Amino acid sequence: MTVKIVTDSLSDITSDLAGELGITVVPLYVRFGETVYKDRVEITAEEFYRRLVSESTLPSTTQPTPNDFIQVYEALAKETDEILVITISSKLSGTYQSATQAKELAKGKCRIEIVDSLSVAMSLGLIVISTVNAVKAGASLDEATDLARRAVPRSHLVAYFDTLKYLAKGGRIGKASGFLGSLLSVKPILTVKDGEMSPLTRVRSLSAGLDYLYSYVEGFSNIEGLAVEHATTPDDADQLVERLGAIYPKENIYRSVISPVVGTYSGPKALALTVLEAEKK
Question: Could you say which of 84, 117, 152 is where a domain stops?
Answer without folding.
Answer: 152
